[in-house]
Write a structure and sequence with these properties.
Oligomer: heterodimer
Order of helices and strands of chain B: EHEHEHEHHEHEHEEEEHEEHEHEHH
Largest sheet of chain B: 7 strands, mixed
Structural class of chain A: alpha/beta
Largest interface: A-B, 52 and 45 residues
Structural class of chain B: alpha/beta
Radius of gyration of chain A: 21 Å
Number of strands of chain B: 14
Helix content of chain B: 25-40%
Number of helices of chain A: 16
Strand order of the largest sheet of chain B: 3-2-4-5-7-6-12
Number of strands of chain A: 8
């Protein structure tokens, strides 16, 4: 048995890399490079999809110019909102944890564009971007960060717990991986009630190592649940890179174990995200089946506001900035004569104004009255609290 | 009135609620094709089909979370845990998600879900399978916790729990599933959550005891009666919220309180009840409050050890005599 066990990491041995650190750095390079087709060692019957080659045009994807401008505005709103939130954090207007989504905005914008408005979505604690993309107002979001009564959760949730049920956004969740089984439950309900909706559950690369992911993936496949399990692989779970945390750093391959479609998506390209999510959501809707979608992205900021980021190099961060999804879409819009720089700067000015106003709104909103502490604990309105 | 086993009363409650509301469904390990590990759900698959009576793999975290997601979308799941011992791997789902979803969303969501199954010690099963989990969960704001002692309460309270818009933890007992009792056959029989039942009245001492411990209290009371002491026995039925007032009313008459609770002593249900009573009825107490609990160790296996570990009738009688200064 011992010999068998030694043989287990066959792939690494085949590469002649017995040294664990060398293997890790090689895997790291692989992870940074987007695969464009099935790996040579792909098992027979594996359904892997690759949304990584780029080269899409809006016409080829059936997107209108207005759709593009809407996605551009969505991404910019997320970016400017968070830049301002970071500043407000520095001024101690916001406290606790603040996890920024900056760099990942193509994921939210492309996904929301691809889904139907009533498709329920849920995510982890890096939730500002998806919330805004789904239709939360900057006002309610900023007020929530400020801990004010006009916040989306009346000052009870904070940065990690944005919710907008009216827009079918089922939260922001603070415990890594804990929302993945809940995502499957959202899809289960859609199937049970025959609404025709597809649930989309986001989680980070760190969460794929939680048992909750594996239980959820198994249940989703076992019960034929229409749910997209979307791993936003920003390549670091806090300060631990994927290849230091996950034995198989090509995360989409986990799909094979649960007999579902596995996809890799270039998350820095909003066209690619839209393309992938449209196709995969359609499949999930029509076949009532789950898929695992690994969206390779990159967060430009630290894990949270207190992260010295010693785990990655300046060079790595600089190189990723060339892939900024907002700059890429802007270039596309200009190159294709859809909008000129002046118009696009106008969009920027407009969202900056929206964000500035949200700061004012948040400032002016009162702190929650102390008696509201006892509200929203139970649906029962006369619950006898211990006082 | 019909005589039903505890398991039959639970089943009747689920069946009636599933007939009444198509959003109610049952999910758990062995609930469907096996007809229930303890036969609670026997026949339900045949009646309702696999869409609404759903076997799960052994994935408590996974299916607890699924239930929560379904409840957030307006369904009313009943999630059966084979026992509450196995909820420790689903603890995050119950505590971080079910209990707190409404609060974190500022009231945008409700989570109308019932988690149910056998709780507490069940014989020579040793440490992992003999946990009384009440105190862990009553400590969590956002949850309601029910632990009935008899088939009638089980039926009436489970129906209320299924209809309740908050997450309810419903704790049964493997050792009581076969217990028989008269169950009301009133149409649409429900019992309000959060109301204690005074099972027996006497002026010498008050026992407070839930679930299996209730029967221990009743036995102790009968024995004390033979010795000339009449005890009041209160079954709280619901542990969160806790009907303090009914206990206080009794203590104001008897001036003596014994709490029997299968939890470990440190921060158990008994601790909470004792705190409330000393706080709100200090002047009425003629003796320090006594409690009878499991011992402050993991549950042992050996027959003599587990018997010594569990609360006993003799301990209950001794505790009563102590607070009556009759020992």
């Amino acid at each position: 048995m011992a010999n068998e066990t030694k043989k287990a990491p066959r792939k690494r041995a085949a590469k002649g890399k017995n040294d664990a650190s060398a293997t890790a750095s090689e895997a790291k390079k692989d992870n940074g490079r987007l695969p464009t087709g099935p790996p040579k060692d792909a098992p027979e019957g594996a359904d892997f999809r690759f949304y990584t080659e780029g080269g899409h045009t809006h016409e080829s994807l059936g997107l209108s110019e207005d759709d593009l401008l809407a996605m551009y505005r969505s991404m910019l709103l997320q970016r400017r909102f968070e830049e301002r939130a970071a500043q407000m954090y520095g001024r101690q207007k916001i406290s606790g944890f603040l996890h920024l989504y900056i760099g990942q905005e193509a994921v939210s914008a492309g996904t929301i564009q691809a889904l139907q408005p009533a498709d329920p979505i849920i995510t982890a604690y890096r939730d500002h971007g998806l919330g805004l993309a789904r239709g939360m107002t900057a006002n309610e979001c900023m007020a929530e960060l400020f801990g004010k009564i006009d916040g989306s959760s009346r000052g009870k949730g904070g940065s990690m717990h944005f919710f907008d049920v009216e827009h079918h956004f089922y939260g922001g969740h603070g415990i890594v991986g804990g929302q993945i089984p809940v995502a499957v439950g959202l899809g289960f309900a859609a199937k049970y009630k025959e609404t025709g909706n597809v649930a989309v559950g986001f989680f980070g690369d760190g969460a794929i190592n939680q048992g909750a992911f594996h239980e959820a993936a198994n249940l989703a496949s076992l019960y034929d649940i229409p749910v997209l399990l979307c791993c936003e692989n920003n390549q670091y779970g806090m300060g631990t890179s994927v290849e230091r945390a996950t034995a198989q750093p090509e995360l989409y391959k986990q799909a094979y174990a649960y007999d579902m479609t596995g996809a890799v998506v270039n998350g820095m390209d909003v066209f690619e995200v839209y393309h992938a999510m449209s196709e995969l959501a359609k499949q999930a809707r029509e076949e009532s089946r789950p898929a695992l979608v690994e969206i390779r992205t990159y967060r430009y900021r630290g894990h949270s506001m207190s992260d010295p980021q010693k785990y990655r190099t300046k060079e790595e961060m600089e190189s990723k900035k060339n892939e900024d999804p907002i700059i890429r879409l802007k270039a596309y819009l200009v190159d294709h004569g859809i909008a000129d720089n002046e118009q696009l700067d106008g969009v920027d000015e407009e969202v900056k104004q929206v964000v500035l106003e949200s700061v004012e709104f948040a400032e002016n909103s009162p702190f929650p009255p102390v008696e509201t502490m006892y509200e929203d604990v139970y649906a029962q309105d006369d619950y006898p609290f211990i006082v | 009135m019909a005589e039903l086993q505890f398991r039959e009363a639970l089943r009747a409650a689920m069946v009636e609620e599933m007939e009444r509301d198509e959003n109610v469904f049952l999910m758990g390990e062995e609930v469907a094709e096996y007809n229930g590990a303890y036969k609670v759900s026997e026949g339900m698959l045949d009646q309702f089909g696999p869409k609404r009576v759903i076997d799960t793999p052994i994935s408590e975290n996974g299916f607890a979370g699924m239930g929560i997601g379904a409840a957030m979308m307006g369904l009313r799941p009943i999630i059966e845990f084979m026992t509450w011992n196995f909820t420790f791997v689903a603890f995050d789902q119950i505590v971080s998600n079910a209990a707190k979803m409404r609060y974190m969303s500022g009231g945008q969501l409700k989570v109308p879900i019932v988690f149910r199954g056998g709780n507490g010690a069940a014989g020579q099963l040793a440490a992992t399978h003999n946990n009384s989990t009440e105190a862990f969960y009553t400590n969590v704001p956002g949850l309601k916790v029910i632990a009935p002692s008899n088939p009638d309460d089980a039926k009436g309270l489970l129906k209320s729990a299924i209809r309740d818009d908050d997450p309810v933890l419903f704790m049964e007992s493997e050792l009581m599933f076969g217990l028989k009792g008269e169950v009301s056959d009133a149409e649409d029989y429900t019992i309000p959550i959060g109301k204690a039942r005074v099972a027996r009245e006497g002026d010498a001492v008050t026992f407070v005891a839930h679930s299996k411990s209730y029967w221990l209290a009743m036995e102790a009371a009968e024995e004390l009666s033979k010795q000339g002491y009449e005890a009041t026995v209160i079954d709280p039925r619901t542990l969160r919220p806790f009907d303090t007032e009914t206990v206080l009313e009794s203590v104001r008459k008897t001036n003596r309180l014994v709490i029997i609770d299968e939890c470990s002593p440190y921060g158990g249900i008994a601790s909470e009840v004792a705190f409330r009573v000393q706080q709100q009825a200090f002047d009425f107490l003629d003796a320090p409050i006594a409690r009878v609990t499991a011992k402050d160790t993991p549950a042992p296996y050996a027959k003599n050890l587990i018997e010594a570990w569990m609360p006993t009738v003799d301990e209950a009688i001794a505790a009563a005599k102590k607070v009556m200064y009759a020992d």
